[in-house]
Design a protein that fits this description.
With 304 residues, the protein is an alpha+beta fold. It has 7 helices and 7 strands; from the N terminus they run βββααββββααααα.
């Protein structure tokens, strides 16, 4: 599926014009892939990389365009079970247009209120800048979810909470890797700024994007280190909760066994004391209750 956009009044407006500034190919079919490779001279391998979520970010130069593969976080779904996924985006920078290739229809420019410059380079940098903020938002969400899971682990012994934490930790590791690879692409864009033809304002935006990416990486690294360092402690908490539960069950079992022994001793089919007394039943119940009281007092004295 193909969508075309122009910048009108500082906003992206969808158009049908062939001379549009922005072309977005969403999960292109075979005909659209053939058009991209044959007519726009996109490299077939680079085109495949734009649709592969496992590809690393990179920058390549072709005769008539620059090919940029960068990473962006996928919208989170409850079906992912606390695993935050990452997708690739292919951006092909021509002198008169920007061609984007993505695997699914997502709002790439949401949150951008005003577009100052109607140039392909500016749109590319704003797109990467928006992706970095998307990463940062997910990192904060992961931190909030991990705090909530910690409280649940402190109160429960269910393995699913630990598994959820492992999924969050795995997500942060992937985020760190791909945020770093985005940073490498931004550094290469800065080094080759003259070759690409970035203007002064675009260079300023590129510098701001680099700073934001570095801050996003450091914040994700801090959260990742905290989560990793506390995983063993959380596992110990679960083990301690299990020990407390087993101790409680053992004490309850002992409490039941003592009066059971007293009652069983007086119910044997032999001659025993009190057998001739009419109120022997109540005496036996009293002895059973006294044994329970004695066990409870012993526990409190020992601090069990």
């Amino acid at each position: 599926m193909l969508k075309k956009y122009n910048v009108i009044g500082g906003k992206l407006v969808e158009t049908e014009q062939e001379d549009a500034l922005l072309f977005i190919f969403i999960n292109p079919d075979e005909g659209e892939k053939k058009h991209l490779v044959d007519d726009l001279k996109l490299d077939d391998h680079t085109l495949g990389s734009a649709l592969d979520p496992d590809e690393l970010a990179r920058l390549e130069f072709e005769p008539k365009h620059a090919a940029i593969i960068f990473k962006r976080p996928e919208p989170y779904s409850h079906k992912d079970e606390f695993l935050f996924k990452i997708a690739s985006t292919g951006a092909y920078l021509f002198k008169d247009r920007l061609v984007i290739v993505i695997s699914e229809d997502v709002p790439l420019f949401d949150g951008i209120q005003h577009i100052k410059m109607a140039t392909p380079g500016y749109l590319l940098l704003r797109l990467i800048y928006r992706s970095i903020h998307h990463f940062l938002g997910h990192v904060k969400v992961i931190s909030a979810i991990s705090d909530e899971l910690q409280d649940k682990i402190n109160r429960a012994m269910e393995n699913r909470y630990l598994i959820n934490l492992f999924s969050l930790q795995k997500s942060l590791v992937y985020y760190l890797n791909f945020i770093n690879s985005n940073g490498v692409v931004l550094e290469k864009l800065k080094i080759n700024a003259k070759k690409i033809g970035f203007s002064t304002e675009e260079l300023e935006l590129l510098d701001d994007t680099l700073i934001e990416n570095n801050q996003c990486y450091r914040q994700a690294e801090i959260y990742s280190n905290i989560l990793a360092s506390l995983m063993d402690a959380r596992a110990s908490i679960v083990s301690n909760n299990l020990n407390v539960l087993m101790k409680t069950l053992t004490l309850i079992t002992i409490t039941i066994m003592v009066p059971t022994f007293v009652v069983s001793a007086f119910s044997m089919n032999v001659r025993i004391p009190l057998s001739n007394l009419s109120y022997a039943f109540w005496i036996i119940l009293g002895l059973a209750a006294t044994s329970v009281l004695g066990i409870i007092l012993l526990w409190r004295r020992k601090g069990w």
